[in-house]
Amino acid sequence: MQLTEKQKQAANHKNGPCLVLAVPGAGKTTMLLERIKMLENQIDPSHILSLTFSKTQALDMKNRFESEGDIKSNFMTIHAFCYLIIRNYYKKTHRKLKILESDNEYNKYNLIQQIYYDINGKVMSSEDLKNFFIEIGYMKNSMADISYLKKSQVKNIEKIYKAYEDFKKQKSYIDFDDMQIIALIILNQNYKLLRLVKNKYKYIQLDEGQDTSLLQFKIIEKIVHPENNLMVVADDDQSIYSFRAAEPDYLLNFKSIYPNAKLITMNENHRSQANIVKAANNFIIQNQKRYTKNLFTSKNATSKVYKKYAKDSKDSFSYILKNIDPNKTNAIVFRNNISALNLISFLMEKDIDFTINNPSIDFFDSKILSDMVNIINFSKDFYNVELFSEIYYMVNTYLSKEEIEKLDLKAINYTVFDYLHEYISDEKAYGLLRKEKEFKNLRTMNLDKQISYIYNKMGYRDYIKMFSSKYYEVVINKDLYVESMINFTKDLKDLNEFYKKIEEFERILNKNNESNIILSTIHKSKGLEYDNVFIIDLVKGEFPLIYDYKNRENCLEEERRMFYVAMTRARDNLHLITLKYRNSHKVEPSDFYTYV
């Protein structure tokens, strides 16, 4: 295979530390495989270890190498590598290794839900469950202490975490998130085992270095020292996993950690036509915390970068259908999972086949939808005091907690409104009559109109604004989510029809369609390429999504990296799409859309 000069330079590097900065489409996998061949000709192949974060990436590299001959060196994920270290240690110390995720007796998700219930006295939401593991994983990977959890939205997370850790200790379990930190502790405390690992793996190359956490880098540091025969292949401009504690700053400080490190920049993009490469390069150079690299390509400029200012979501999807090439791969990519719901509803309505990169997304397990179902159910049963107690503050009733507590929680012959009118002030009584009328109006509507009415007329939109937080994507993108729900429930009479449609929706989602129309979040599209790429929902407030205003600049730089990743998935045509209206509310184009 013919390599470029930069690829050759990297592939021929043997001893000492080396950081290879590989831009999108630079042919880094080809280079890494050529380097392994070079090393295998000079040293025992069993001493070579290729690491990556993703199992898919590790398998892909292994399969590509196998297709060219016998495989002798080692390919694995960092987690698998840590597992080998722990297994070896447990074997030598005659202990039984018990992995919680591999045990049939306990389910860690059920365990956390039970602990949450015992501590907080209520059922844990699926969002809180997901966020619990995200935040624990982040804390461990970033090597932060438990005080990091203080800012969590999960109630009593520190107590829950401590109870979970106590359970594992008592039962002698470790879980997936423990593996890396335990591996590092073992390497720090057991010199014999460390020496064994060092002697076994003398040459390490790490792919996708920008996705690697501080903890993972520390493990690698421990093994390669003092020879430091380490090659890291990365692109700081594609670091988009801060929520998983990926540490791009480590790459920026690489020369400080390894003073004699070689730095090689593979900055030729072999994937995209010239106008896409130029637009992507001009965009990413806005970031300050990065290595300077001028992205270029030897490909011709075959088309411009297209921009569409659509009236609304439906108009944007119609534009996409007109520009899809049936003979090529077409990816519709988006910043937020929720964008897929609108899109899927539209494609289902048109009976168009598609493939989704993440079919396991649960669009219907959210606080917003759960609240709306409760509000709709109460509108049909004014005697349900318990339900009213759960929703009264969501729809601008202006009632106090004390006034609600006066309601008789036993069965009553009066409606909630009749009962309240006996003791609330005249000032509040007028507002309550109006609210009662709104609930009665709700009964007469189809489901899509009910959702719109609750959100736009009953005050729910004002209420949900208070709940924006880093991980509650549905809440941050409330207008997009509600618009998606309105479109999904169009022509449905009631919740029973809604639940039936969800079943059909999930059946279609889990069908393995072979389609040239691919739906994907930007995160899931990373490392992939398509002939035509459509980036949708480029709306201010949705993309870039700044969830941490104290850390605004770092957030913005990562959002730019995300947009850069999306742009550089395209080979031939790139379409950027914004909207004028979202859920009947006027919106502005994203600054990213405007900049290009």
UniProtKB/TrEMBL annotation:
SUPFAM superfamilies, A to Z: P-loop containing nucleoside triphosphate hydrolases
Catalytic activity entry: Couples ATP hydrolysis with the unwinding of duplex DNA by translocating in the 3'-5' direction; ATP + H2O = ADP + phosphate + H(+)
Enzyme class: isomerase
Residue sites binding ATP per the record: A22, V23, P24, G25, A26, G27, K28, T29
KW RNA-binding (keyword) present: no
A cellular-component GO term for this protein: DNA helicase complex
Protein EC: 5.6.2.4
Protein name, per record: DNA 3'-5' helicase
Single annotated GO MF: DNA binding
Protein family (similarity comment): Belongs to the helicase family. UvrD subfamily.
InterPro entries: DExx_box_DNA_helicase_dom_sf, DNA_helicase_UvrD-like_C, DNA_helicase_UvrD/REP, P-loop_NTPase, UvrD-like_ATP-bd
Keyword match Isomerase: yes
GO BP term, example: recombinational repair
Every UvrD-like helicase ATP-binding domain range: 1-273
Keywords: ATP-binding, DNA-binding, Helicase, Hydrolase, Isomerase, Nucleotide-binding
Short name of any one Pfam family annotated for the protein: UvrD_C
Positions of the UvrD-like helicase C-terminal domain: 274-527
